[in-house]
Write a structure and sequence with these properties.
The protein is mostly helical. It has one domain. The chain is built from 4 helices and no strands. It has helices spanning about 5-25, 30-45, 65-85, 90-100. The protein is globular, with a radius of gyration of 13 Å. The two termini are about 20 Å apart.
Length: about 110
């Protein structure tokens, strides 16, 4: 698996964990619903047609999530995104760098 995909999987996993902990009162593990969303997002990242040149999902021209999961992940990202800077500054800075400078779809 490529570094950018691994980084994206870690970022999404962290965001889902933050969202779940704060909204579903899960202290140690994420709940079943958030686990399903995490598994779904990992499968989508793995199957991205852009491969190694995968842009961040927000800048992608192809929306590979089903409508329900897309709505769920948007909700998670809206909530967890601002909190990521404090919870995981490295992942946040890497994500922002990719979003701003490396988001060209080939």
């Amino acid at each position: 698996m490529a570094f950018s995909r691994t980084l994206e999987e870690k970022t999404v996993a962290k965001m889902i964990a933050i969202y779940c902990r704060d909204n579903h009162n899960s202290n140690s593990e994420i709940c079943d619903g958030c686990r399903k969303l995490l598994n779904y997002s990992q499968k989508r990242i793995e199957k991205c047609p852009f491969g190694e040149k995968k842009p961040v999902c927000a800048k992608c021209t192809i929306h590979c999530y089903a409508p329900q999961q897309r709505a769920e992940i948007k909700k998670v990202m809206r909530y967890a995104g601002p909190r990521m800077l404090y919870k995981s500054p490295f992942l946040t800075l890497r994500y922002l760098f990719r979003k701003i400078f490396k988001s060209n779809v080939y």
